[in-house]
Write a structure and sequence with these properties.
Length: 618
């Protein structure tokens, strides 16, 4: 039999490789943008026609290529970025495989114009289906201008598989967004057909996020920053109230490379815990810097997945960092403390604001084993969280007592001066006392930039929940005996359920016994319950929590805490006196997470003076 094995011609080998590297216009965009960044560009323009199917052009002002390099760049495995295997473990560039340009040249009509600083004339190369059509000197700017026409023109099967322009465009914008976020110091623009979709001036990360996601972005963002011996974490997370029903604003970067990780996403979602309404997702743009030696980027050709040496420890750090950030800034959208104007006298918060907070943030470990020093983290994060949280809230009220929620605002001054201010403004200058209840259900509390509308029931649920988390489950759990034991008849299902948790709840301060078939007698409740809850209410609420928990997989303590908070909380419709209103506000803002009750319902809404003003404009 004759020999039948042959080496594939380069053009075919390149076409096959291209299948891996370039799946669609967006993959070509990614490769070209990354090349421009690797070349040190400070300005990068992306021009598209027909969602990149007709044209993808990237113009950069990077270092350009010499004539020889320009020609070489289209060869397979031609790269200037690594020289030996060891370099693979100390990568500082986005590219390193030397496959992108070779692949692109195999499946499109490519024109490259490039010039280095030292050259007078640049080089122009036209290449189609891996075949060099022409190469000649040309006039051009320093940098590289690469255009790629008719992607997959010679691979009809792939061309036919491309999706509609809107779908392909979305993929391109995704890639563009990731790269733009990772490089805020670089100017980027994106033109599609005749429209300019993005025009991103160089700036810091916050400005870039706002540039990418729109001006409302700024109000949403809370900085996250944590420096540990393994990983340096930085970036922004959005405040819970801005979470969206759709995904698409979640970004992790490891050593400035975008990665996808369901596992790390989970860490983040976990940090938001009960703050988010179900089925919503926060925005986050998080950068992790690690020693390249402990990650492996070489896992997947499109390089979006990486392997960490110890993923669990990253998970933990990330979760703690996010929790910390959210706790520190448990502030609301309209309050940007960085822009705090002149402040006269600090708001004095009452004694009651000293209420202890739970430190749930730190006692969690997905692996069930200690991967880092929990106690240490607690020391670093836990204690500071409490004091700084209260400080943040103090700032919220600062300046208020010197009056003039209204005067401070120039544009309103003209109107207010026509009024007798004594009549318009509450007489009492103490900002907290000026809070008042409406409809026996909600509290209005003026703040510097507007006012808060607080839902008293949700707020009290949050307060009690946090208190019970602290108090319950200690060895010396106190039970308060009921004067009159109460019999509670239950359905068969409910009594089975209650029976199964009797030992647990009795250990936590309840005194409940089975009385007869499907009837229980409650003789005592945890001392923390206070006097205004009925045993029936608590048991009912506990069973409800327990039923829900089968889905949510919450533990018994969580359920008990939830049941107690729910049943003992002040209900809507309950009249509160001035002192009670004040105490409620103090206690709410001493909580680590005052935004929402333990089930994700908002505790308050912020109304901004500016927005109010707009509503009165015609
Ligand atoms: P890689 O980026 O993995 O090295 P590519 O095929 O993308 O492989 O690029 C091959 C080489 O071409 C790069 O290593 C680089 O030296 C050069 N190159 C590509 N694009 C540019 C550019 N925009 N500016 C300067 N040099 C470039
Ligand atoms: Mg490259």
């Amino acid at each position: 039999m004759p020999d039948i094995i042959q080496l594939l011609p380069d053009a075919i080998a390149n076409q096959i490789a291209a299948g891996e590297v370039i799946q669609r216009p967006a993959s070509a965009v990614k490769e070209l943008l990354e090349n421009a960044i690797d070349a040190g560009a400070t300005e990068i323009q992306l021009v598209l026609k027909e969602a990149g199917k007709l044209l993808i052009q990237v113009i950069d002002n990077g270092k350009g290529m010499s004539e020889t390099d320009a020609r070489m760049s289209f060869e397979r495995h031609a790269t200037s970025k690594i020289k030996n295997a060891a370099d693979l473990f100390a990568l500082t560039t986005m590219g390193f495989r030397g496959e992108a340009l070779a692949s692109i040249a195999a499946i499109a009509q490519v024109e490259l114009k490039t010039r280095t600083e030292g050259q007078e004339l640049g080089t122009k190369i036209v290449i189609e289906g891996s075949k060099v059509i022409s190469q000649e000197p040309c006039q051009c700017q320093v940098g590289t201008n690469l255009s790629l026409r008719n992607l997959f023109y010679n691979v009809p099967a792939r061309r036919n598989f491309l999706k509609s322009n809107s779908v392909e465009n979305r993929h391109i914008v995704d890639e563009f967004t990731r790269i733009a976020l990772a490089n805020p110091q670089i100017y980027f623009s994106l033109h599609h057909n005749t429209n300019e979709l993005f025009h991103l001036s160089p700036g810091n990360l916050r400005q870039r996020i706002v540039g990418v996601f729109g001006p409302t972005g700024n109000k949403k963002l809370v900085p996250i920053s944590e420096d540990t011996d393994v990983v340096k974490i930085s970036g922004y997370v959005s405040k819970p109230e801005f979470a969206k029903r759709t995904r698409g604003e979640q970004f992790f970067f490891v050593n400035n490379r975008f990665i996808k990780s369901g596992y790390l996403h989970h860490a983040l979602m976990n940090a938001y815990e009960d703050l988010l309404p179900e089925g919503t997702f926060p925005l986050y743009v998080i950068f992790m810097e690690l020693d390249p030696k402990i990650i492996d980027v070489n896992v997947h050709p499109t390089k979006q997945e990486i392997k960490f040496e110890d993923e669990k420890i990253i998970y933990n750090y990330l979760r703690v960092a996010a929790r910390h950030a959210l706790g520190q800034y448990s502030i609301t959208p309209t309050l940007d403390f960085e822009q705090d104007p002149q402040v006269s006298k600090a708001y004095q918060h009452g004694e009651s604001a000293q209420q202890k907070m739970p430190s749930t943030a730190m006692n969690w470990d997905p692996a069930g084993k200690k991967t880092f020093d929990v106690a240490q983290t607690k020391k670093e994060f836990g204690n500071s969280a409490e004091s700084s949280n209260i400080k943040n809230w103090e700032k919220l009220y600062k300046g208020l007592d010197s009056l003039p929620t209204i005067q401070n605002n120039n544009e309103i001054t003209t109107i207010s001066s026509q009024w007798n201010q004594e009549e318009v403004l509450p007489q009492d200058n103490d900002p907290v006392k000026r809070a008042f209840q409406i409809h026996n259900s909600y509290i209005i509390s003026p703040i510097k930039s507007g006012y808060l509308l607080i839902d008293q029931q949700a707020a009290h649920e949050r307060i009690l929940h946090d208190k019970f988390v602290q108090q319950l489950g200690h060895q010396d759990q106190h039970t308060q005996a009921l004067l009159f034991p109460i019999n509670i008849p239950l359905s068969v299902q409910d009594s089975q359920m209650l029976k199964s948790i009797l030992p647990d709840i009795n250990q936590m301060g309840f005194d409940v016994k089975e009385f007869s078939a499907n009837t229980f007698v409650v003789q005592g409740l945890p001392a923390e319950c206070g006097d205004n809850v009925s045993a029936e209410q608590i048991i009912e609420s506990l069973l409800e929590q327990q039923r829900n928990s089968q889905e949510l997989q919450t533990d018994i303590k969580t359920n008990i805490v939830g049941a107690l908070a729910k049943s003992a909380a002040i209900k809507r419709g309950t009249k509160l006196d001035t002192q009670e209103v004040q105490t409620l506000i103090d206690q709410l803002f001493a909580c680590e997470m005052p935004y929402a009750n333990p089930w994700g319902k908002k505790c308050f809404i912020v109304y901004d003076l500016e927005d109010l003003k707009k509503q009165f404009e015609v």
